[in-house]
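Q: Got a minute? One more chain.
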Amino acid sequence: MSQLYRASEPDVLKPLLDRAATSPDSRGRIIDHASGLLADLRAAQNRGWVNQFLQEYRLNSSEGVALLSLAEAFLRVPDPETADLLIADKLGDADWRAHAGQSNSKLVNTATWGLVVGRVLVGEGPSGPLRRLISRAGEPFVRQAVGTAMKKMGEIFVMGRTIDEAMRRMRKPDNKGFTASFDMLGEAARTFADGRRYFDAYVGAIDAVGNDPAAGHSISVKLSALHPRYEVARWSECVPALTEMLEALAVQAAGKGIALTVDAEESERLEMSLDIIGSVAALPSLKGWDGFGMAVQAYGKRARPVVAWANALDRVMNVRLVKGAYWDSEIKRTQVEGLADYPLFTRKAATDVSYLAVAKDMLAAENIRPAFASHNALTVATILEWAGNSRDFEFQRLHGMGDGLYERLVRENGYHCRIYAPVGGHRDLLAYLVRRLLENGANSSFVHQLADARLSEDEILADPVAKIAAVGGARHPSIPLPKDLFAPGHRISRGLDLSDVATLDATVRAVKAPLALGDTPAAIAAEAGAAVAAAVGRAQAAFPSWSRTPVDARAACLERLADLLEENRDRLMAICVQEAFKTIPDAIGEVREAADFCRYYAGEARSRLRAVELPGPTGERNTLHIEGRGVWATVAPWNFPLAIFLGQTVAALVAGNSVVAKPAPQTPEIARFAVELAHRAGVPEDALVLVTGGPEVGAALTADVRVAGVAFTGSTATAKRIARTLVADDDRPIVPLIAETGGINAMIVDSTALPEQVVADVVTSSFRSAGQRCSALRLLLVQADVAEAVIEMLSGAMDTLRLGDPADPATDVGPVIDRASYDKLMAYRASVTERTVKTLAAPADGLFVPPTLVRLDAIEDLDREWFGPILHVATWEAGKLEETIARVNAKGYGLTMGLHSRIARAAEVTEAAAAVGNLYINRSMIGAVVGSQPFGGEGLSGTGPKAGGPHYLYRFCAERAVSVDTTSAGGNASLLSLDEGGI
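A: Always. Here it is, folded:
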């Protein structure tokens, strides 16, 4: 099974194509049956205003997306001012008038005219006539109308707010003949309290459904809802805990005589899920109970062996086959982490092929009771053809979708269909459901194709096997392998798949390998000047030869260095962990970023550092040459001792400069090894010279008048001292300083933001790398209307963090870099004890600063950067976004800022007003990607240009313009060669 996890798509699909194929005779019968199902589906679409409304505002249209986006956020917004802004944002830009009068339903047309009026209301200025009418009426009827509409939409897709309400609804005539699988929640747990609450909800649901076992309803359980750290790195903690909880629920369900199915999760959790499911399936106490089941996602490359695994268990298993629910997020994760290949199929037709092949296996399996979840008429017709007269299986569909597909099959033909029925408050579940609905509404989905009048029946019912065979099973051309994501610019670095247990174990062994650290000689203060002078002299002597080396050759050195970094990844990661106390994910990121810098700057040098021919009058040649400046000093920090150290250095080198590179005194070994690799890659030893030591070495280096430029990353105070040094000597040339310094980085959160997403991004931004990133979140600004709820969830999420050995994959927060940093941070924590909202216990041994949350009365209370895992939180008032941004800007720093909001206008306002180098919207604030998110600040946070961006190399260069009068030597040859004029 594991060999298929990242296997190539054509290789995985080859046996699936054979298994999913149908004979010509069967194909004819399947098409006939599917055509009838299509007719039933379309007839259902024309029944009831709800179906017609959804048909008019399809999920792939801008208006449909606007409505769903409004539904996703509106009901969780407590304050009227933000609610009005959200309505204006979502209704204001869509073309509702184009839908007026287009539906066969009077109710739909009435609703559309309501949207048209709403668009006018939100689109006009505050003094417009309709606005004045609302003001006089004293009733915010637009807001009330939207709230009612959103609750109505919630009823469409949520079976009930409670399990009792959901069961009553299942007894209505519309659901006659159907059974339900009730799912009690949407989002995954973020806190241990969430997990306990969701577990109790499942217990209550099993008890309620078990009171009427004859109804045939069942329960669906999501393991990620029961534990907030359902991750491979926390296997030893979460798998036993989840096994215990699932066992309790299964025993309860067995005692009640009802079925229980474990829902599918993201692919990286598959092996954990199978471990848990297998343990519970083998329990002697559950022998004889045939209600235990699991879901399998056909979009995963391992779907078929998972079904084979389930069939091999010593019991009958209910298996629900679904297409898959996390496709887009898994594609992105694979790309971000630079993994070898995707764990899933990149074409919708390939997923359909996989689904059919696995369905055929399930129908033939001895120990599997199949359930086929699909809204695809062709899929359903194919399964019916293969099943023959059998009724020993069931179909499943989502509540609110697929009406008409199964009614005739259930009520006239005796087939069984179960409705997957979410249960919970609309406010909590709509966010989850909207994302699922948007996936089902993608252009390639059957739901979308059915609603697209431009597609013929033949196109809708085209054979997926033929589609995939025609392209040889090839990956979708718009979804390149992660390594080719930035092609043809540069190949991105390879990541490590830590969700693969074997890879994780090997990585842990590698980073724990004993190293002889501290053996790099550091110049003592008395010798610093002499050592630095000698190093600069070597680099100065090497400059002429290196600068004359063709740019292609210099770039090739960087590309060889990138290869060497990846070849020596294990040792580099081990040094990062043992010398800089980086966790394993951070160590991987460090090596990857260093390699990405090398390849990116190599490509940039080849394309940008060429002589440029400029225009001019006839008989004149004008050329702009780009050359190295001389000796550059690069001074790197300890928090990115490889990535920033090499990023600054290789940029200077590829621009034609020689370099004297100084690492932080805390991390000399990683720099020494990096320089050794650079020399092995072809950089002359005197063109790149390493000097080590403390502030005295840095001071001597930047004071040397032979240094033609300085690239520095570190504190603002040190950057200012360097700047003063560079201008202190009147006889010294004016040299450039590239400085990237710290910041009081703020994230602004309004009441439309999804709290679960906010909390996940805040924890990552604040506490990863023990808060020791320049970009780390220091100041969380939450709209006052939702602040207490967000802070409560954040406090609970902090409880899930583990402090400890950075070589342990379960560790979230390692020690800070040194005693000086530890003492400074701990003294500050002690000074704000009365304002501390949340803090954690730290290990007794080691320099561990506990993650801490500090409440401030005002934004202005934080006036300096605290470089560690200390987060400050304050509030802001609704309607004062611009003022809040201005207050943050007033601090003078300008490195990173974050915004969490579902209001597009809020993003536009923040983008226009935020005086920061990097703005992150609805995501974490760390992890800038070379070539994609150039990094660097302004104001007190740096000089620019941005590292990893298209303008960076120019700062290391001198520009020289050469003008030649070509007529001075006896005429203009270019004119004489023209076949025009003459004697």
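A: Residues 115-139, 519-524 have pLDDT under 50 and may be disordered.
Q: Perfect, thanks.
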